[in-house]
TrEMBL record:
Keywords: Signal, Transport. It holds the Pfam family DctP. Residues 1-22 form the signal peptide. The keyword Signal applies. This is TRAP transporter substrate-binding protein. InterPro entries: DctP_fam (IPR018389), TRAP_DctP (IPR004682), TRAP_DctP_sf (IPR038404). Belongs to the bacterial solute-binding protein 7 family.
Length: 329
């Protein structure tokens, strides 16, 4: 009873004093679809810590992982409506906003290395892509890294022809759809949260993702084979509702930008390690045979996916694809 009374008194005090009301923290709801123990999940927590410290508690960041609040498509709508303030969707998931250029990141083998990727995301091309979100009521703050994707199924995928007829879950990206069709597979676009159940129930037979996403969602438990193909990239744009962001007091926004810069630098240091550790954990789990491709097999995969460029260049924008290719060359 005493606790209830105290809470009521505290509530009354808040109502009575306009000063106290002014101190109510600004809340940033940060929704995402992956597990906390992933590069994105850990960076979101780091941002929360830094943002709350740097604004001395004026801002409170609530992180909702694992599609707890929204699934892929819904979270973009929620951001535009202002139901949440911050997201970090994969670059494969921006076309519902009418911004198809980010699908360039899905092109097979587009980045020969992480250094080449960073040259794009941290340079002029990265900035100009984020600016395309502004007319959609969205401000892009940063790129967060995950890693190169592997492929899994219930049979070994060693040659491109091994994919023939296999139902593969993909993110909802046209480029990934065409990539799978080019390999002769049957792509099925599913929300991230639906993937593990779909693999378990046989709705799909295989998938592609980073080891950290596979391991933390326990996809490996239903996938007997995994190929370290590194054929494509998975990364994120951290985005906020523009109206919310522009409406913040300038000092607070500057502190949040600083927190984001530090969280982004941290993210970059953990992404690779987290994926290496996850691949090791999958190996140790004993459920899945991990295959590495010979240089000859790698060359075959690369050759098999090459037609995706000609088919998708128009959709993504020739200038963007060519600018990226020049940058990474
Ligand atoms: C997926 O849907 O596979 C990924 O985009 C999930 C994520 O956010 O890493």
């Amino acid at each position: 009873l005493a606790a209830v009374l105290l809470a009521a008194l505290a509530g009354a005090a808040l109502v009575a004093s306009p000063g106290a009301r002014a101190q109510a923290p600004i809340v940033i709801k940060f929704s995402h679809v992956v597990a906390p123990d992933t590069p994105k999940g850990r960076a979101a927590e780091r941002f929360k810590l830094l943002a709350e410290q740097m604004t001395r508690g004026r801002v409170k960041v609530e992180v909702y992982p694992n599609s707890q609040l929204y699934r892929d498509r819904e979270e973009l709508e929620a951001l535009q409506l202002g139901a949440v303030q911050m997201l970090a969707p994969s670059l494969a998931k921006f076309s519902p906003l009418g911004v198809k250029e980010f699908e360039a990141f899905d092109l097979p083998y587009i980045f020969p290395s992480k250094a080449a990727l960073y040259a794009v995301t941290e340079g002029r091309i990265g900035r100009s892509l984020l600016r395309k979100l502004e007319p959609k009521g969205i401000t892009g703050l940063a790129y967060w890294d995950n890693g190169f994707k592997v492929m899994s199924a219930n049979k070994p995928l060693l040659q491109p022809s091994d994919l023939r007829g296999v139902r593969m879950r993909i993110q909802a990206s046209k480029v990934l759809d065409v990539q799978m069709r080019t390999l002769g597979a049957q792509p099925v676009a599913l929300a991230f949260s639906e993937t593990t159940p779909a693999l378990r129930d046989g709705v799909v037979e295989g998938t592609e993702n980073t080891p950290s996403n596979m391991y933390t969602q326990r996809m490996h438990e239903t996938q007997r084979h995994l190929t370290v193909s590194n054929h494509g990239y998975l990364g994120y744009a951290v985005i906020v509702n523009k109206k919310f962001w522009d409406g913040l007091p300038a000092g607070i926004r500057r502190n949040l930008e600083r927190a984001m810069r530090e969280a982004t630098a941290y993210e970059k240091t953990i992404a690779q390690r987290t994926n290496e550790a996850a691949l090791e954990a999958i190996r140790r789990a004993g459920t899945t045979t991990v295959h590495t491709l010979t240089p000859q097999q790698q060359a075959e995969w690369r050759r098999a996916m090459q037609p995706v460029y000609a088919q998708m260049e128009e959709r993504i924008g020739k200038d963007v694809v060519q600018a990226i290719r020049r940058q990474v060359a």
